Backbone:
């Protein structure tokens, strides 16, 4: 196992990249601690696969270095990096038994047969495949086959990291949760560094201790699920994480105060607002917005039932502001005022939080 460091990493698929958009990965500095459970989360095209391929050695970055425990592996081929990968589609040998599939990575490395047997049985027990060891893999369902792929990643004791690339894509929705919990449990037992790549926030937030959020080839935040919720570092994180996402409202800054639509809005960032210029916005999650006697004047435009609470959509001019209202609490018929919880209302400049 190893700590993985990405140092000034950048990648472009173009021979002469000029504009920032020519880079699939912009300059990126990141540490993946030994034994961590990470999710790499971002929308399609943000650079997740490019980043994985650079870590696994399938792709050489245009700029920067990859270090494993401080050693430069940027130009080391994949087979010398000791990385296991689990892909979207299970990679199994259909004609082999489940046992032989699990044993394959070890036999390939000439591990003594007694050790192979011990390790295969140990892993099979962890992933609930013991009763199937003698079956041919061809007869298994998609989730059974994906468990084999997972088992083949876990069976080696020399791996630095296991990378999962959207591993639940082909799994039935009702089994996704089971496999996800299994992965979390395996991480807690084995403490191998795991990187779980997904565009699905639920998968990321339930699996990972730390989530790396990417957008447009950049890492926009690394944090615990709570940090991403409570203090999004970028409006993209606020939008992308949460359901519904954070309200992002244009604001002006005057004399150290934020104004939205002519109304002063107290924010958590108040003391740092004096010198702020550029495109400024207020970010506040629907969970921290309430109806009040005074505040931002709005019209209620839509109410949707979401079980124990309702999602209320309001409008102030062109801007839409959403809030959550508990079951049984009143909702004004049309004109109303909103108050934002000051400690959870942040100011953003050009997308980034004003600290
Ligand atoms: N082989 C390639 N040649 C040229 N451009 C590429 C290549 N692979 C990826 N790209 C581009 O690089 C950017 C990042 O792509 P990448 O596949 O890493 O994103 P992703 O987040 O993994 O997306 P997805 O979730 O759809 O797989 C995209 O703009 C993509 O079009």
Residues:
């Amino acid at each position: 196992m190893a700590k993985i460091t990405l140092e000034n990493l950048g990648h472009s698929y173009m021979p002469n990249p000029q504009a920032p958009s020519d880079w699939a990965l912009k300059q990126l500095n990141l540490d993946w601690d030994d034994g961590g459970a990470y999710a790499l989360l971002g929308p399609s095209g943000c650079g997740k696969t490019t980043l994985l391929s650079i870590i696994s050695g399938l792709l050489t970055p245009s700029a920067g270095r990859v270090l494993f425990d401080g050693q430069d592996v940027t130009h080391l081929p994949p087979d010398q990096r000791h990385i296991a990968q689990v892909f979207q589609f299970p990679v199994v040998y259909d004609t082999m038994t489940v046992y032989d599939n699990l044993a394959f990575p070890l036999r390939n490395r000439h591990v003594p047969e007694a050790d192979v047997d011990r390790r295969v049985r140990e892993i099979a027990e962890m992933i609930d495949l013991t009763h199937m060891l003698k079956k041919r893999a061809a007869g298994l369902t998609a989730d059974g086959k994906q468990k084999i792929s997972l088992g083949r990643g876990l069976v080696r004791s020399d791996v630095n990291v296991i990378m999962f690339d959207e591993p639940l894509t082909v799994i039935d929705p009702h089994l996704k949760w089971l496999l996800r919990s299994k992965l979390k449990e395996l991480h807690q037992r084995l403490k191998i560094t795991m990187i779980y790549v997904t565009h699905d926030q639920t998968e990321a937030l339930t699996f990972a201790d730390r989530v790396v959020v990417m957008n447009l080839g950049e890492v926009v935040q690394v944090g615990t699920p709570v940090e991403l919720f409570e203090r999004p570092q970028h409006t993209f994180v606020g939008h992308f994480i949460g359901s519904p996402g954070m309200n992002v409202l244009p604001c002006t800054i005057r004399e150290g105060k934020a104004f939205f639509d002519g109304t002063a809005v107290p924010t958590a960032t108040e003391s740092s607002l004096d010198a702020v210029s550029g495109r400024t916005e207020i970010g506040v999650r629907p969970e921290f917005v309430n109806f009040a006697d005074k505040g931002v004047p709005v019209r209620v435009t839509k109410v949707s039932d979401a079980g124990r609470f309702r999602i209320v959509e309001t409008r102030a001019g062109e801007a839409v502001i959403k809030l959550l209202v508990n079951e049984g609490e009143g909702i004004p018929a049309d004109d109303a005022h909103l108050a934002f919880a000051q400690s959870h209302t942040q100011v953003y400049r050009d997308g980034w939080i004003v600290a």
About this structure: The chain has two domains: 4-236, 244-353. The domain at 4-236 is CATH 3.40.50.300 (Rossmann fold). The mean pLDDT is 93. DSSP finds eight helices and 22 strands in the chain.
